[in-house]
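pls ignore typos typing on phone
inosinic acid + seq
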Amino acid sequence: MPVIVLVGAQWGDEGKGKATDLLGDRLDYVVKFNGGNNAGHTVVIEGEKYALHLLPSGILTPGVVPVIGNGVVVDLAVLFQEIDGLEARGVDTSRLRVSANAHVIPSYNRSMDKVAERFLGSRRIGTTGRGIGPTYADKMNRVGVRVQDLFDESILRQKVEAALSFKNQVLSKIYNRQAVKPDDVVKELLSYVDRLRPYVGDTALELSEALDAGKVVLCEAGQATLLDVDHGTYPFVTSSNATAGGACTGSGIPPTRIDRVVAVLKAFTSRVGEGPFPTELHDKFGDHLREVGHEYGTTTGRPRRIGWLDLVMARYAQRINGVTDFVLTKLDNYDDLDEIPVCVAYEVNGVRHDEMPISQSDFHHAVPIYETLPGWKQDISGCRTFADLPKDAQRFVEFVEERIRARISVVGVGPGREEVIERHSVLSEA
Ligand code: IMP
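k done
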């Protein structure tokens, strides 16, 4: 004990790295429990920028055991690319553990992802094209390939053949693509077996033993609350559970062992891909926040859609995840603004909604109700305590805190590791 779950409160890219940096030396294990290489965070090693998509962030912290849980979908080519990239820079990756129950993303699911998006046309989801959705679909359809299958060639062949007997019909007859040869897929997957073997284990058991021994475990979500397949803005979501509940199913850690749930909330909102976005900005404020916040996708390079902070969504994230602590990031991105509108409720067809509307079409038609707070018009990146912040920035933080039903324990005031104000330890109760 303890287990801390870290989630994103919006549509991703909230800056979870701020929280992991802060917790870094207090952690023993960092577990990725959902998603795959659709996520992305940029790390700087000896002045060189490096984008990680699949490996848990803990891979960079000496002494931390990074774990790829059973709930993750693993593209083995990407896994070894990232391992090789880090090893070449002198990072030791030998502590990595990979669940034998995690599913692998065979190359045909990357093709399926891309052709399906093209086929959907204007109804596309705007996926990252990494094969995430088709691989989770295979898992639920019980035609997926798991990491453990790679260690038994005849089982692997059977599974790949079974999956392709259907998919090849779809690829050739619906999407007009060439059928995929099972042999090619099996050969590619088997090419990773020897390198993979030392990392693979019963990670649920290993985590349980670690907790019994008093270790500190962080379960870090990929994506975020509003991209969760159950609780997000379906169908414009990813295909896994990115909320706190997913930490249990995706790692094998039971709910009774979770102590803290930390949600990262960006001081404004961003989204990549399609789907409704009530506070979206199409004006100079959106452009300004995109530029000062460097809001371009790490995985796809796409410019992110930008909007004002939405507290209906933040309250929802608190409720769905049982958030105990918020980390408010990028407060400094508002330094130049005269005033800052914050969405406190929606209006849908003349009716005020303080909570997320139940139907997706109401959410599509939601018009934000804003309260406008004064800006502080000064550089706050040097502030290290709450009292250092200008009064209007303090007021902004308190205004948000009063409306999201959990304390704001950490405030990010700049991109650097040290550019934070820690008001409370996220490891301790209020
Ligand atoms: P998929 O996860 O590739 O299937 O994409 C589904 C949706 O989730 C798309 O709108 C993606 O842009 C979005 N998405 C997936 N991963 C991330 C992420 O790490 N940050 C933000 N959006 C993401």
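The longest strand covers residues 339-348. The chain has 13 helices and 19 strands. more later
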